[in-house]
């Protein structure tokens, strides 16, 4: 397996890649907390290039908050990279603090994942380090308490430490020809439930079914926000007019109602990253 420094796809100006490579090279066997998204897949691929795929393990957290198609896609990307996947069953849904769904929900989710990795995976797979795919943009956001959990469990963040932002990570993913290079961001299903409204397996299943239905209609990038009987659909702006076209509008309504919602609304603001969390962060700062 070629090392990154010998890979002609990376030039002398790829200082970020060199920094990630140097951080990874310090370890004999490393586990990557992996979701199949662009950030974690890029980190996984760089680890495989630097250390060789037999010295890297993709650690995929599995719970009701992970959509079935995301789980399948994660396995496909890891197979492309050539790294084995170890599924880590997590039980954050049993934690009352997670169920309460405050702005710190992500902390409890990541704390559960990293605890399970510590307890059951590191020794079995002889890992001397675990890393995750936080990028430099995410490291600057105030609504990412999962980073606190990573720090408490001594989980490495090579991309953020190398100051690689979202755009840089996507560029590297394209250079590596990863199948997920153009994949839209896919936050966990719990992010669709307003803060301080309980997270439950039933709500997560409704969101998953509604979003799967929308994707089957060609809306590849979508969110279904859970407001009780109301499903508030977020789409990319160019898809909003299409969703209201006669014929397709009725199909949108059908797939979302079949997931268990009574009412279907299309949000004219489009997809909003951190739609529920950022207003709370702003309020606490005010």
Could you explain the architecture of this structure?
The strands form two sheets. This protein has a four-stranded parallel β-sheet with strand order 3-2-1-4. 43% of the residues lie in helices and 13% in strands. The N terminus is likely disordered. It folds into two domains: 172 residues, Rossmann fold (3-Layer(aba) Sandwich); 92 residues, Alpha-Beta Plaits. The protein contains 13 helices and seven strands. The protein is α/β, with parallel strands linked by helices. It comes from Knoellia aerolata DSM 18566.
Report the top-level CATH class of the largest domain.
Alpha Beta
The end-to-end distance, rounded to whole angstroms, is: 52 Å
Largest sheet, in brief, is: 4 strands, parallel
Percent of residues in helical segments?
40-55%
- Number of structurally distinct domains: 2
CATH fold descriptor of the largest domain: Rossmann fold
Give the oligomer, counting copies of the same chain as homo and different chains as hetero. Answer: single chain
Uncertain runs are: 1-5
Overall mean pLDDT = 91
The geometry reads as globular
CATH architecture of the largest domain: 3-Layer(aba) Sandwich
């Amino acid at each position: 397996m070629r090392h990154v420094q010998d890979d002609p796809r990376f030039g002398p100006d790829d200082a970020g890649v060199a920094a990630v490579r140097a951080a990874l090279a310090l370890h004999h066997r490393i586990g990557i907390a992996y979701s199949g998204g662009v950030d974690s897949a890029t980190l996984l691929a760089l680890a495989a290039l630097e250390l060789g795929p037999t010295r890297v393990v993709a650690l995929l957290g599995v719970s009701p908050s992970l959509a079935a198609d995301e789980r399948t896609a994660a396995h496909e990307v890891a197979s492309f990279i050539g790294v084995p996947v170890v599924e880590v069953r997590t039980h954050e849904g049993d934690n009352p603090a997670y169920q309460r769904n405050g702005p710190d929900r992500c902390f409890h989710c990541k704390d559960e994942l990293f605890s399970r990795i510590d307890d059951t995976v590191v020794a079995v797979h002889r890992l001397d380090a675990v890393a995750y795919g936080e990028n430099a943009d995410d490291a600057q956001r105030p609504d990412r308490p999962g980073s606190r959990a990573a720090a408490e469990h001594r989980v490495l963040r090579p991309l953020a430490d190398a100051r690689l932002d979202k755009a840089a990570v996507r560029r590297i993913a394209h250079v590596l020809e990863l199948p997920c290079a153009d994949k839209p961001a896919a936050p966990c299903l719990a992010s669709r439930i307003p803060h301080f409204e309980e997270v439950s397996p039933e709500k997560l299943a409704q969101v998953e079914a509604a979003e799967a239905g929308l994707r089957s209609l060609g809306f590849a990038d979508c969110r279904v926000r859970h407001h009780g009987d109301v499903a508030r659909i977020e789409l990319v702006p160019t898809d909003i007019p299409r969703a209201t076209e006669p014929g397709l509008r009725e199909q949108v309504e059908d797939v979302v109602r079949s997931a268990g919602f009574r009412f279907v609304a299309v949000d004219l603001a489009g997809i909003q990253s951190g739609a529920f969390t950022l207003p709370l962060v702003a309020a606490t700062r005010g």
